[in-house]
Amino acid sequence: MHIPDGFLDTKTWVSLYLVSAGAIGISVNRANRQMEDKRIPLMGVMAAFVFVAQMLNFPVAGGTSGHFVGAAFIAILLGPWAALLVITSILLVQCLLFQDGGLTALGANIFNMGIVGGFIGFYSYLGISYLFPKKGLLAAAFLAGFLSVLTSATACALELAFSGTVPLMPGLIAISFVHTPIGLGEGLINIGAILFLQKTRPDLLELDRM
Amino acid sequence: MPNKASWPFWLLIGILILLTPFASELPDGLERVAHDLGFMKQDKTGAIISSPLADYSISGLAKNKLSTALACVVGVVLVFLISCSIAKWRSL
User: Fold this and answer.
1) Min CA distance, A146 vs chain B (Å)?
2) Architecture per CATH, A10-55+63-206
3) Which region, left, alpha or beta, applies to residue A164 given φ > 0 means left and ψ of -120 to 50 means alpha?
4) Could you tell me how many CB contacts below 8 A there are between chain A and chain B?
5) What is the pLDDT of residues A14-30, one digit of tens each?
6) Is the pLDDT of residue A181 over 70?
7) Strand partners, B28
8) CB B69 within 8 Å of CB A10
């Protein structure tokens, strides 16, 4: 769901650049104050993992593919502010080096995946694991992934409508419809990633989050 | 402390890099909608900057499985370095 150049009008992409820049500023500030130095390489490894996972498009129905976004997964492990930094670094490299996602749309893409996806993923995970404290971990990770992709896609549809690129209702319906199976894939990969951590590094599921 | 090792991640990342050349090349969710609703032609990406690694392949090399995997390795290294340095922005 990386928005290319040309889909958003100037008022929309400039506003989203400002919002994202502000949020990244808060996030860097928090990282400088709260994140222990020994945690930083871990965040880097997680970012590297999510970057590669984002390249692995899987086919979904109707001649369409989807890929893991990873914002909810990082937010579950390290917290939503750390997830914003991780997603921002990935989107920067994708945009500048691989021309995946437009330069003018970078702020919007950071907003949709890093801010909306990360915070919705994080708080839906917290909510579900609060309701089902015993065995809810994997279910919470699944739903957090699903909801984060759906809300990122919804934000994207709203921006396209604000830009006058596509009318609101047809755009919203088409984008949510196509991202439903992609969101289910995101949830399943979250489960796989959490199971991998439980086997290899269960300590990482108990970190302080930022 | 063996339980603090990070090698399982790097091993997993290595395996995933080898899988990237086999990823689906079908349009993604947003591209599909843009085709179906007729605004794909508005895509102007690449008009402002042009990168030698555009579209996850290396210009000068044919777009094949090796160049996709190599482009991915470059991306992994950069993402690792940028995310580490962004977290310590002020102390750099």
Assistant:
1) 14
2) Orthogonal Bundle (1.10)
3) left
4) 202
5) 999 999 999 999 999 88
6) yes
7) A65
8) no
